[in-house]
Amino acid sequence: MKPIKSPLANAVMRSFRENGKRPDQPVPIAGEGLRVATYNVHKCVGVDGRFDPDRTFEVIREIGADIIALQEADTRFGERTGLLDLKRIETETGLIAVPAEASVRAHGWHGNVLLFRDGAVRDIHREKLPGLEPRGALLTDIELNTGVHLRVVAVHLGLFRASRRQQADHILGLLGNRDEAATLIMGDMNEWRLGNGSALRRFEEAFGYLPPARASFPARWPVLALDRIIANRDGLVADLAAHDSLLARVASDHLPLTALIDPGVLGGEAVKAMRASG
After folding, report:
1. pLDDT in tens, 65-74
2. Can you list the domains of the chain with their CATH numbers?
3. Omega before 218 cis (within 30°)?
């Protein structure tokens, strides 16, 4: 009788087969629409152990997203201090950071930073999440210059499975108390399983089938789909891929995850015009 492999063993075998075929350049996302991304920058420390914010910046520039959620963009202990040059990011990419933290030295909320271009922030909500570790969610309503309204929840879930379930339930409760809007939940979920005990199952039960998983961790040998872009509307995420460039493989222990948002589901043909004119 052939032994049954665990999901983790299957993921490792799939990664082993595919790693030898990884191209030097990331596979582009095809089509027109809004480009979004999530990236755990690992406090700008690469897999080589080197602290290099310039390298992190170059990966962000490579991605070319219209909206990007970053995790671990601040120091974690003591007074949180931002690790990136936000002015340079704004000047060279047009991405503006959503104001998130009361401390003038920090970039984000519990390390979560949301950057966007071509629009305005209509609402910001900073939420502390339950669990043994200090974690938070940054909920932002963005009105794009095209008139499209998008709600984004930038988040980094905890290391403990029970905490992740609590945190997922908390986020869903937070969304349930707001007016309905096209919503993306983007971040490092620290979860790759889809069983009954998974935080991801909470989102699946609320929104329906999740966008496909893409292995993003560890960056040099991607096995686990820890990073996710989750939508509350079917078809909102039209395409999705790990940003697997040579630089991204060393700049952090996570690969960025990128997605194309379908403008038709957003009700915004103007998004196509935005991309065409950009």
Report:
1. 999 999 999 8
2. 33-266 (3.60.10.10)
3. yes
